[in-house]
Amino acid sequence: MDILRQFAESSGAPDESLVGMLGIDWKMLVFQIVAFLVMLLLLSKFVYPWLIKSVDERQKKIEIGAKAAAEAQDKALEAEKRISKLMSEARIEANEIVAAAKAEATETLNETEEKSRQLADRIATSAQKQIDKDVLAAKNALRGEMVELVALATEKVAGKVVSNKVNNELITDAVKDAE
Question: Among residues 139, 143, 169, 141, which one has the least CA distance to residue 154?
């Protein structure tokens, strides 16, 4: 600052030229030009390279970030397509599983119905056989009672006892005639 004051105070008599009329001091102008050039030299040597390097690095980071964002967006779209495809496949598989389950349920129901029919037929056949046995047993019991009654009736009518052999033959003939 002292230097500037010296230059300002050292100015001599006013100059009558155009520059002097404008109030420009040549010494001060030269000093300012030299100071500017020194400042420009220092800035271009030390500050501008660092500043340019920082701007370039920042630009590279921005470009890398933009590329990464574009790649992420592409990957997101690709993932969305894969998810959509997987969902579609899952729906198809679920429909197939449901259809298979329905078919299996229908088949099981049909098998159960068939087994039930077979069981009912067996029960009905068994019941019919049992009824036939019971009827046959009842007929045999009735026949036995009828033989006894006929034997008693014959004894009363004939008034004498017939031998068992003759009695059985007469009863058998009478039963056959009655049937």
Answer: 169
pLDDT band for 145, please (50, 70, 90 cuts).
confident
Distance CA 83, CA 34 (A): 70
Decide: 21 and 27 in contact? Cβ < 8 Å. no
* SS3 readout for 67-99: HHHHHHHHHHHHHHHHHHHHHHHHHHHHHHHHH
Residues in Cβ contact with 150 at an 8 Å cutoff, skipping those fewer than 6 apart: 170, 171, 174
pLDDT in tens, 11-33: 555 556 776 778 888 889 899 99
156 pLDDT exceeds 90?
no
The set of residues, in sequence order, having a beta carbon less than 8 Å from that of 170 and lying 6+ positions away, is 150, 154, 162
Q: How far apart are CA 16 and CA 157, in angstroms?
A: 193
